[in-house]
Write a structure and sequence with these properties.
By secondary structure, the protein is α/β, with parallel strands linked by helices. It contains 18 helices and 25 strands. The mean pLDDT is 96.
């Protein structure tokens, strides 16, 4: 079926649509804020939350559904949250940073149990707030639960490995990882739970205290977890800050009391924010930033496989993933056959509302996002590119039908700019060095997908690509998981590494208690251990 504006518009439900009513949730009017271990009543201004889902009126007009509201914070309330975190950390003297790892694990297990009990509420809010399909929202929740469990196992193993003295050159020492201080945590809207917890959970379990600012799209989904956070962790360990990021985040950093900045966003914003800290050498940054991951399709590639994987890589969650494939580089000898296979795969994808069965393509978070996609597409077409698929780029309200754009060249914004949406730019090459140069000259260096079958070609190209990006995917799309694998990037793509074990290191530093290996020193250390006088100097295991 030819995708037209009328066809797209009819995909939105009417107010009396049965499927809409079955999927609907009661609006959540959040009027409390978690700060310093208290659920404080909010009496200030609130911000309405509009879903990507729009409702079609009798006259054909479209209106975004309102699904609730949340506190609209300001600088003063953000500083209150920061003050609570600073007091709880207390320059490393607080209950949480000085606690035994085994006790922090128990707290995290309490949180996990409470989180699991709220699965249905959180997953439906993910669907309604950002337009992710219900099935994918459930997958995000379950993957996050697995991540928390893996983190608990990893920190337990790390602590057990560090629960022994080392004797080197006449010095006896106990070396453990210790927290860094106060963490400002900001997650993204596309994976508001999973990506946020990929930094929040390791930061907490390593003994840091946190100020958490929810993403712009994806605030209400944390409301069911507020009481879970409050009950699981000591006062001031987790504090929520609401408001416009451009207003409150610079002020928080300018205080100099933030020790760690975590951000999943743009490199431009990260560069600006880091410079606001009065002592940048004291600020550690763990950042997941821009990406323009390319797929390179060689002449001997399995074209059917390459087309299927490239489409999944480009359009999973409407292309709103940092690991999405955002530029397809196809050898000229197979360009026509690849395009045909790609179009055939695209024609099979179903577009519709996120609760509908078998839907892949869903509404974008806002009309503004649709306008951004249209502007990128118009720029490419004006400069000579063509839209290859029927109806590509058609937009109504928050729905945007994907467009395969070819050939995309250096003069077009799509050639280098990260689209973060359902646009599939494609170019061809004859000399493989042109494809390799595209990756090498990119400002970003996260991942690449290589489609080929010749072992010699794969081996030689891999040798080059691993020095430009941090993951080369052979005959498959780019992706983050499994979470035990390192997830990072070169150049402007990332700072720090976020695998389960690497994240624990990112949010901590090695500290030690050491003494000369003499009889008096041994006697003192033995007394400390046997008398359980220290949470740091001990040789017990975190087996619980």
């Amino acid at each position: 079926m030819m995708m037209s504006r009328d066809n797209l518009s009819l995909l939105f439900p009417t107010a009396d649509d049965a499927a809409l009513h079955e999927a609907a949730i009661a609006p959540i009017e959040q009027r409390s804020v978690l700060v310093n271990g208290e659920m404080r009543d909010w009496i200030g201004p609130v911000k309405n939350v509009l879903s990507p889902v729009m409702v079609r009126g009798s006259n054909g007009g479209l209106t975004q559904m309102r699904i609730g509201s949340h506190p609209s914070g300001d600088v003063a309330t953000a500083i209150t949250a920061l003050d609570a975190a600073v007091a709880a950390y207390d320059s490393g003297r607080g209950a949480w940073p000085t606690m035994r790892v085994s006790e922090r694990i128990l707290a995290m297990q309490r949180f996990l149990a409470g989180m699991c009990a709220r699965r249905a509420e959180v997953t439906r809010l993910i669907m309604w707030e950002i337009g992710k399909t219900l099935a994918d929202s459930e997958k995000e929740f379950d993957r996050t639960v697995d991540y928390v469990r893996q983190t608990i196992d990893a920190v337990r193993n790390l602590d057990n490995a560090n629960s022994r003295f080392e004797i080197v050159e006449g010095v006896i020492a106990l070396i453990r990882r210790t927290p860094l201080g106060v963490v400002l945590c900001m997650g993204p809207y596309n994976y508001p739970l999973n990506e946020t917890f990929a930094t929040l959970i390791p930061a907490l379990i390593m003994g840091n205290c946190v100020v958490f600012k929810p993403p712009r799209h994806g605030v209400l989904l944390f409301e069911p977890l507020l009481e879970v956070f409050r009950a699981a962790f000591p006062p001031g360990v987790v504090n929520f800050a609401y408001g416009e990021g451009a207003e409150i985040v610079p002020t928080l950093l300018e205080t100099g009391q933030i020790n760690v900045l975590t951000l999943i966003g743009s490199s431009r914003v990260a560069d600006h924010l880091k410079k606001l800290h009065p002592k940048t050498n004291r600020l550690r940054a763990i950042l997941g930033l821009d990406a323009k991951n390319a797929a390179i399709v060689m002449p001997d590639a399995d074209i059917a496989l390459a087309a299927k994987e490239c489409l999944l890589g480009a359009l999973s969650f409407n292309g709103q993933r940092c690991t999405a494939l955002k530029m397809l580089l196809v050898h000229r000898d197979v360009a026509d056959s690849f395009i045909s296979a790609l179009q055939a795969e695209l024609a099979q994808l179903k577009i519709g509302m996120p609760w509908a069965p078998d839907v892949t393509l869903t509404p974008l978070p806002s009309v503004e996002k649709v306008n951004q996609m249209s502007a990128l597409l118009d720029d490419a077409v004006t400069k000579g590119a063509r839209i290859l698929n029927a109806g590509g780029g058609t937009a109504v309200g928050t729905l945007f039908y994907p467009a395969v754009v070819y050939p995309v060249g250096p003069s077009m914004r799509l050639f280098r700019e990260e689209q973060f949406g359902p646009l599939i730019p494609m170019s061809n090459f004859e000399d493989v060095d042109l494809a390799l140069d595209y990756v090498a000259t990119s400002e970003h260096g996260q991942q690449v997908s290589l489609f080929a079958r010749d072992p010699d070609v794969i081996g030689r190209m891999s040798d080059v690509l691993v020095n430009q990006v941090c993951r080369v995917n052979l005959n498959c799309q780019c992706q983050r998981g499994p979470d035990v694998f390192p997830f990072t990037g070169r150049k402007d793509a990332a700072e720090g590494t976020l695998s389960v074990t690497d994240a624990l290191r990112s949010f901590s530093i090695r500290s030690m208690v050491a003494a000369k290996y003499t009889s008096p020193s041994r006697e003192i250390l033995n007394t400390i251990v046997e008398g359980r006088h220290s949470n740091f100097v001990h040789t017990g295991s975190s087996s619980n």
